[in-house]
Amino acid sequence: MASTSKATVPGGPSLGRSRPRYGELIIKVILVLAAAVSVATTIGIVAALLEPTIEFFGTVSVVEFFTSIEWGPLFSPPSFGVLPIVVATLLVTIIAMIVAIPLGLAAAIYLSEYAKPRVRKIIKPVLEVLAGIPTVVFGFFALTFVTPLLRDFLPFTLDYRNALSGGLVVGVMIIPTVASLAEDAMSAVPNSLREGAYALASSRMIVSLRVVLPAALSGIIAAIILAFSRAIGETMIVVIATGGRSIFTMNPAREMDTMASFIARAGSGDVPVGSIEYKTIFAVGALLFIMTFLMNYVSAKVVRRYREAYE
Amino acid sequence: MSEIGTSIPNVTVRGPEVPRNIQALDPVFNVSGLSVFYGDYAAVRGVDMVIGNREITAMIGPSGCGKSTVLRCFNRMNDLIPGARAAGKITYHGEDLYGDHVDPIEVRRRIGMVFQKPNPFPKSIYDNIAYGPRVNGRKKGMDGIVEEALTKAALWDEVKDKLKQNALSLSGGQQQRLCIARAIAVRPEVILMDEPCSALDPIATTKIEDLMQELSRDYTIVIVTHNMQQAARVSDRTAFFTAEVDDSGVRHGRLVEYDETSRIFTNPSDKRTEDYITGRFG
């Protein structure tokens, strides 16, 4: 074979490329561009937020912004204490997480550790469809179904629009995100760990909670962070169900304005470009961005500390 | 490990330092007419064998002969595979292992298992050992349990100064001894080993084999191995399995011969056993 092969003749053509591969180059450029779009968008958003925000703090003092408890930038005279809408935002988010984390994780544990493969194949896509319901639908569900229901059953009076109803429904909205991503993380835990645990006389619940959950922790935290980011920035549901009157209160039965709902309302009104009201929108947006960023950063640190890496 | 080749290996059946009367079996497991199904497929058919108390029983045979499948019936690990089911009968000290009243978790507390690939939890060395006792309700005296288990698994001296370190930082051989220690910590009566050395180098393998000899004073050990020399070195009895094709062309596992290890390796009664151990198989 070797004696007849022309390719192996010593001193034959060089090993250099015989003709250029343009296709490879084009593909590479397209892929780099695709990756660059999201990076560029993020930088663009930060840049767009930065300038009006700096201008905003040229007019309104940082101290007033962060310490005053009067929020009414669209009123006359305007007031710029951001605390009421920050508190409202956190309140709605916390209510949502209290709903979504236990239910989402329970669903993930069921799907990953308990459900038969056939059942999982049916339930998981259904769950993911739930994630595709438009938030405006959830908003009206909160306003016209959940709030009246709560008013019937709770011993205290609820405002027509309130943080409780909005928070609960935001929580329901993000359950599929938590469940689906956490289930992915748990399914990725190697079976050898499960077998090891079962062989040590563990029940299914012990295997799930003491072996699978810690091993999947980084993925589970990632799921929770994504859900948190969606909850803190959720706009439509809170605009519809939680309201727009800004009161400084911790009482979830009251109507309140969150950061996202303020931005939506102010942004869709007739606020003149360049006015202080206009710049306020950007300042609130920047703060929301920073809060989400900090949350991401802190949880990444926490995960590095506590996760049980199996590889 | 030194003999490599196709001749009958130098048989070093376990010496008389642990005297025992092999003929008078004190049965721990009694297997009769065992078949294991995956769905409708009978992977192993018609196995009969008796596992003696505080003996080392080796199961050897080519890939796909069902030896691991049979091993996993002894602690009901096959229950975890959807569609798997055992027919026939296995008794453990006379009690039907697959009886309706039997709790598989209780079965696995008495019958521990070590796997082919070391599978320590991604936790500290200490927590790996303490896991079993903890989930089985032990709360006090954990330090003592951990030390005892690691000592029995001949690992204590190597890890006593780094118990808080992640178990995955250990070498493969150490990880496997950790897994043995982890199984011991639950205080089982039987330890099942599914090719425990196949992912290890020869030195680590020797250590595990020495350990098995040591452990067989207190525990009944059943080991599946691909390594015939290993079976010859460590076991009291050997079961030889093979894969057969039935009339309708379906491949399945069969127990060919089960006898004292010395006889299997020097004077097997079945031609197929002889062919396999002399390397004339397939």
From TrEMBL, chain A:
Subcellular localization, as worded in the UniProt entry: Cell membrane; Membrane
Membrane topology of the entry: Multi-pass membrane protein
Keyword Repeat: no
Pfam families: BPD_transp_1
InterPro entries: MetI-like, MetI-like_sf, Phosphate_PstC
Cross-referenced PROSITE patterns: ABC_TM1
Annotated TM spans: 25-50, 82-110, 122-143, 163-186, 207-228, 280-298
Domain of life: Bacteria
A biological process from GO: phosphate ion transport
GO molecular function list: phosphate transmembrane transporter activity
Any one of the GO CC terms: plasma membrane
Domain (ABC transmembrane type-1): residue spans on this chain: 86-299
Gene3D superfamilies attached to this UniProt entry: MetI-like
PANTHER family: PHOSPHATE TRANSPORT SYSTEM PERMEASE (PTHR42727:SF1), PHOSPHATE TRANSPORT SYSTEM PERMEASE PROTEIN (PTHR42727)
NCBIfam families for the chain: phosphate_pstC
Function: Part of the binding-protein-dependent transport system for phosphate; probably responsible for the translocation of the substrate across the membrane.
Annotated family: Belongs to the binding-protein-dependent transport system permease family. CysTW subfamily.
Name of the protein in question: Phosphate transport system permease protein
Organism (species): Spongiactinospora gelatinilytica
Lineage of the organism: Bacteria, Bacillati, Actinomycetota, Actinomycetes, Streptosporangiales
TrEMBL record, chain B:
Keyword check for Magnesium: no
ABC transporter domain sequence ranges: 22-268
An individual GO BP term: phosphate ion transmembrane transport
Keyword Transport: yes
Molecular function as annotated in GO: ATP binding; ATP hydrolysis activity; phosphate transmembrane transporter activity
PROSITE patterns: ABC_TRANSPORTER_1, ABC_TRANSPORTER_2
Organism: Spongiactinospora gelatinilytica
Keywords from the named record: ATP-binding, Nucleotide-binding, Translocase, Transport
UniProt-listed SUPFAM superfamilies: P-loop containing nucleoside triphosphate hydrolases
Protein name per the record: Phosphate ABC transporter ATP-binding protein
GO cellular component: membrane
